[in-house]
Design goal:
It is a multi-pass membrane protein. This protein is of the alpha+beta class. Helices cover about 40% and strands about 30% of the residues. Helix 5 packs antiparallel against helix 6 and helix 6 runs antiparallel to helix 7.
Length: about 350
């Protein structure tokens, strides 16, 4: 069988044999000097992924931490044994012992990597069982940090983000294929995540460029997250509405100097808002919904200061009637309609796009 294996692929696994198991912390990667299947009869492996806890979501680093239960199932006739001789139908192994047992009889375990893993994987518990017919069940519970490159903050804070947990075979698809174990996959009932509402969990299968440089099978648990909007309504939008109302109330003051002073204070508040919100997000190359609204409010407040300075200049130069006329237009039309136009454009340009 080894003669049929391309020399380049086999050489790759010979060199990678020990390093993959170490860097990926993959207890099923004990032996990589051969292949578990053949192009005519690839080894079919079931993958189940269940996330029990979300330990944190770091928007700035675009990653998240999770406690995950991973289930791997396959059948290898080379691992079969005589149940009457052993006295039972199932043998239970510590995973490293299973790898050693498989290597001793010339079998190869279907090693895998977690494609979007960013940190060390700390395995809390793991076990493997071998049935007399060669059916293997491997289960591990571990915690790790995972990359979330699909984050898109354009609709922030009304955004829906996509989270992935991707398991990829070390071996090319012609030797190992994956199928999803949907009944053992999904999200736990108590994830411990307060900021996000997580739902719509599903398994997706695909083929990606693997470590061998060839296409490898991948099974990914994909789920979505929405923010608790009550927080943003109370902490962001309600204060913004108060500031806008204060800016509008300034037009009812007869003293233009007082208007300028209060509007200047509002301007500083908007600067603080901008810094506080940007601290939660990475340095993006595009505007978010909230960025756009805040910047427009900042410009409107700056324009309000300039407008009141101009009114005071008209009053000082003896054109108080013209100043009052412009003031009246600003109260009734310019200020409220200006903000209405800003919000309408922001909703259509950011929230209503696919």
């Amino acid at each position: 069988m080894l003669r049929a294996i391309p020399v380049l692929v086999l050489g790759f696994f010979l060199v990678l044999g020990s390093s993959v198991a170490a860097t990926a912390q993959n207890v099923l990667g004990g032996r990589l000097d051969a292949l578990p299947g053949t192009p005519e009869n690839p080894l079919n492996v079931g993958i189940g992924i269940r996330i029990d806890q979300i330990t944190g979501v770091d928007q700035k680093a675009e990653n998240y931490g999770a406690v995950v239960v991973l289930r791997v199932e396959w059948t290898d006739p080379a691992l079969a044994f005589d149940p009457e001789e052993l006295g039972r139908d199932i043998r239970v192994f510590n995973p490293p012992d299973l790898a050693n047992h498989a290597a001793s009889i010339g079998s190869v375990l279907p090693a895998f990597v977690i494609h979007n893993q960013q940190s060390n994987k700390w395995i809390h518990e793991s076990a493997a069982s071998l049935r007399y017919d060669g059916r293997v069940l491997y289960v591990e519970k571990s915690s790790l940090t995972l990359q979330a490159p699909h984050f898109d903050f354009r609709k922030y804070p009304f955004d829906t983000q996509e989270f992935h947990f991707e398991v990829v075979s070390v071996f090319p698809s012609e030797y190992v294929t994956y199928h999803p174990l949907n009944e053992f996959s999904g999200l736990g009932d108590q994830l411990g995540e307060e900021e996000w509402i997580l739902n719509n969990a599903r398994l997706e299968t695909s083929r990606v460029l693997g470590l061998s440089g060839k296409e490898s099978d991948q099974v990914a648990l994909v789920f979505e997250g929405n923010r608790h909007l009550t927080y943003y309504v109370i902490r962001v939008f309600l204060p913004m509405l108060v500031l806008i109302s204060v800016g509008w109330a300034l037009f009812f003051l007869d003293e233009y100097r007082r208007r300028i002073e209060i509007a200047g204070g509002n301007l500083l508040v908007f600067v603080a808002f901008n810094w506080a919100i940007s601290a939660d997000l990475p340095k993006l190359g595009y505007l978010t919904f909230l960025d756009f609204v805040l910047q427009c409010m900042f410009l409107m407040t700056g324009a309000l200061i300039v407008f009141n300075v101009a009114l005071r200049r008209l009053k000082v130069s003896g054109k108080e009637g013209a100043a009052r006329t412009l003031d009246n237009y600003a109260i009734k039309w310019i200020y409220p309609l200006g903000y209405a136009a800003i919000v309408a454009y922001a909703v259509s340009a950011f929230l209503l796009v696919p």
